[in-house]
Amino acid sequence: MNIISIVLQVILSLSILVVLHEFGHYLPAKWFKTKVEKFYLFFNPYFSLFKKQIGETEWGIGWIPFGGYVKIAGMIDESMDKEQMNQPVQPWEFRAKPAWQRLIIMVGGVFVNFVLGFLIFGFLLFYYGESYYKNADVKYGIMVDSLGMELGLQDGDKLISIGGKPVERFSRGIFTEEIVFNNASTYEVNRNGSEITLQVPTGFAKRLTAPENKNKGLIYERYPQQIANVSKESIAEKSGLKKDDIILTVNGKTTTFVNQLSTELKKHRNEEISLNVLRAKDTIQTVAKLDSTGTLGIELWGADKFLTISREKYSLAQALPAGVDKGISFLSNQIKAFGQMFKGNIKAQDSLGSVLSIATLFDASWSWERFWTITAMLSIILAFFNILPIPALDGGYVLFLLWEIISGKKPSDRFMEVVTTAGFVILLTLMVFALGLDINRFFR
Fold this sequence. Notes:
By secondary structure, the protein is of the alpha+beta class. The chain is built from 14 helices and 19 strands.
């Protein structure tokens, strides 16, 4: 069921993005009285799952559930309809329109995706608001995973600054953002009451962006452990543990915080352990026989019980410009990451992924807030990559149209056929390569 949920989310998200992107081409084409022969969601080599002729346009759904297209008369595109291009130019064709109109038609899809991403971010802020921890309110410091330890962090550290930039809002991804996107080379923490400055290890950006580390958070907000629920017939229930108990020690080792408890329990898989437990104002002792999982069968209270959450509400008038700011910030980070690839600070192949990588972004439980957040991000990424000056992408057409407007010289149809074919070969090669990388990561 989890896989089905993720697959449905991927298909729905990409369908929304593709349909609206193609409408970004379709609408200006119709405004400029250009014939649109086909409008398809997904690709349809050999046959279509659905098609219907409405006026001059065939509307349909293909059977390969990736992408989509509009076929505009008189335009050299993925259809490579050379027979049409060999006919005399007709007034309703793309090639008959002035360069400025063709430019608007081509940038329409990218424009829609940018606007869509900004609007989704804005409406998310309006509907959900924004919840976060002030760095000062992460009063117990941080918990770190193995990658965080490689960076030099320790449990209980309190963040002060990264790359000289003061940390005001706590974020689990703040180190990744500052090191990968902003080249942070130092950070400052309060450790046991002393402020110390530490160096980011050389080449650590590559470690952070390696596929095996993409789901690692490095740091988490640290908070005390307290039992929220005891499962029926669990080891905890048999040992007499109850809701709101605090496990003070496991075999004499202090377990004040959630990560300390988890670590100590896993050390004693298949063993009998002694527990020192605080219940209200009383301290009691009990024993438990762990199984191979090293768990008790309890649910702990979350961080929200112990840490103050700051909440920011937005009116619609506030949310929309804030959504634009959020989208621009996200886009800026993607451009920075692109630059880091060219500099060799992060490996391009570690950042390259197929639809399988996209699927890992979605929650199996189908959170609408998460769904729309990922859709907004994908919309902006789609716009960014589509506007790159690569033949066969919108940006490739835009490049040649700008050349035509500036120089007054229109590239020949033969030239456009050659560069478009080359562009498609490059894109297909990259897609196959990305899919291969994802498959290799899955079986690694």
